[in-house]
Structures are given as C-alpha cells and as structure tokens.
Amino acid sequence: MSRSLVVGNWKMHASRAQVTDLLSALLAGMPRLDGVDVAVCPPYPYLQQAAGLLTGSRLGLGAQNLAVEASGAHTGEVSGPMLVDVGCRYVLVGHSERRSLYGEHNALVAQKFRAARQHGLVPILCVGEQLAEREAGTTERVIGAQLDAVLDLCGGDSLAGAVIAYEPVWAIGTGQVATPPQAQAVHRFIRERVGRGAATPTLLYGGSVKPDNAAGLFAQADVDGGLVGGASLVADQFLSICKAAFSQ
Ligand code: PEP
Questions:
Q1: Residue 131 and residue 141: Cα distance in Å, rounded?
Q2: φ, ψ for residue 61 (rounded to 5)?
Q3: Whether residue 227 has its Cβ less than 6 Å from ligand 1
Q4: Contact (CB, 8 A) for 182 and 213
Q5: Which pTM does this prediction carry?
Q6: Which residues are catalytically annotated?
Q7: Which atom of ligand 1 is the closest one to the Cα of 226?
Q8: CA end-to-end distance (rounded Å), the chain
C-alpha cells in the first residue's frame, strides 16, 4: 500500500493573516503525525508566504493549478517552473472546478499532468463523475476516459510517484460524502485501470471529508488518504482528518 497522504485544497480562500494563523496552528499539531504526509494548497499569491512559514517543517506545499507552458506570452497563467521556484512539491491537476468552470477537458488536463511531471512536481490528478453520470451508471466510463487521457499522452510509468484523487463531483462542497463502499469501489476500479505494479499511484478520496467520516473512508483497502476542501481551512478539523489517516 502507498504511504498515507492528506492534502488541503484552500481554493480561493485566505488572506495573509489567515495564512499565518492557519499554518501556525497546523505546524503546532503536526509533530504528533509522523507516518502521514500532509500538504496544503493555498492560492497562488500566498505560496511564497506559505513556503517561508513551512521551511524546515514536514508540511508540504502545493498549488491548485498550473499552465501547460513553461514560460512566455500567457497572461494570467502560472507555470510549473515558477511553482518549483517558490517551493511547491505538489500541484492539483484537473480539479472538478477547473473542469466545469474553466473548460478544462481531458486532453488539456493530460497536458497539465505532463507539464507537472516534466518540471518535477508531483501531480495530484483529480477525477470524478457528476451526479447524473453516477445515476446513469456511467461512473466508470467517465473516470476511465479521464484516466486514459493521461495514460495515452504520458504512459503508465508517468503515474509512478503521482497522486490520483477520486472526487465525486456531487460530494464536493455539498456535505454529501460518498459512503466508504462507494469510495472503495471506484478506488479499486482506478487501481485496476492504472495497474497495480511499481507505478501504482497514491489514491486519495475527496468530497466532503470531515473529522467524523474520515476514518471510515481511510480504512478502505484502496484509499490512501484524502483531498480536503472546506475542512482544511479549520486547523482542528484538518488535524483530526490527518490523525484519522495516521491511525490506519
Ligand atoms: C475539494 O475541493 O477538492 C474538496 C474535496 O472540497 P470539500 O472537502 O469541501 O468537499
């Protein structure tokens, strides 16, 4: 099994003061969490501030998106080398909000995944189905296509050391969490699709993970940890979720 990982996605939240408060509280709680990798993904403007606060700690830093290109005339974009330069280790790729609100289709997401790998970042590839797709029985077809776009462009070996987050869209920010068996079923499908060999990626569940449901989700055989949105903005809640990953 992969090492446990819990990642906080702050989305478009925080201020300079909140970054300091939240990271200080997390750092104070982290020493008790040996055995779990933990990272936070603040908005771009706060990455450098966060990197400074996290120097020398075991709390990792990630970004929420990256450009396909490394540099050039791409107004408003942020590249992989820039993220590395400010201290990022991880980057979210293809979060459902990027897919649904900003038109990021499977082929573009695959290009971003490749860019992350080329620049030495650990991509956290987000996949997941809409509610209508689940109800229509097409969950595996949808997720299979999301995975195949990356496999076709980058090859199976590109998943070695990468992270895949299964995030059912109907569970993100809704409080309607997938049941542990629902999460496990999709994680098993993903594990089989990408192969169980040496290249097997770390598989996270995301979608309304909270302190009271994290342990049940993380206990599933193919769930290696979580991608956490709302609860990652509250230090006590995020630390509780990290502890649930530690106790598996
Ligand atoms: C997310 O943004 O990736 C997420 C899982 O959000 P939440 O935990 O709030 O559902």
A1: 14
A2: -120, 140
A3: yes
A4: no
A5: 0.96
A6: 95, 167
A7: 5
A8: 11
